[in-house]
Amino acid sequence: MVTYSAEETMEFGQQFTQKLKGGEMIGLIGELGTGKTTFIKGLAEGLRVDETITSPTFVILKTYPGRIGGKKIEFVHIDAYRIESLDDIESLGVEDYLGRNDIIVAVEWAEKIKKILPKDTIYVQFKHKSKNQREIILE
């Protein structure tokens, strides 16, 4: 998938939620400025999260109430950019969010904590194509 603006990347994130049921772990991979947080904003919109989404770089993890279909869910946004060891992320209790069908977790910089992510994690890779173009690859 190639997007040509932040709005298109956000829209793709919103459309992506149509395939979610709850319980998914979404791992986002890509350099700075490739659209990971923009995609997350689209996910949040699709999950009917009312709060403004900001990157939790300094707090690492934020949770938001949302909905998927008619079901209440919790949207968990993790930013592993500042993680230096798996102990850092494990100390946040990330395991508490895994495998629950009332939670959807999205992790920016997922490659830094890949060892603890479930085998069925949906990986989404972001690449710069040009100033406004992004290539988004689902793995």
Task: Summarize this entry quickly.
With 139 residues, the protein is α/β, with parallel strands linked by helices.
Provide an overview of this structure:
This protein is an alpha/beta fold. It has a seven-stranded mixed sheet. The radius of gyration is 14 Å and the shape is globular. It contains three helices and seven strands, in the order E-H-E-H-E-E-H-E-E-E.
CATH domain fold name = Rossmann fold
Q: Say how many strands there are.
A: 7
Widest beta sheet: strand line-up: 1-7-6-2-5-4-3
> Which CATH C-level class is it?
Alpha Beta
Indicate the CATH architecture: 3-Layer(aba) Sandwich
Overall geometric form: globular
Which descriptors would you attach to this protein?
Rossmann fold, single chain, alpha/beta, 31% strand, 19% helix
Helices, strands, pairings?
Layout lengths: L1 E2 L2 H11 L8 E6 L5 H11 L14 E8 L2 E9 L6 H5 L12 E6 L13 E7 L5 E5 L1
Parallel strand pairs: 2-5, 2-6, 4-5
Antiparallel strand pairs: 1-7, 3-4, 6-7
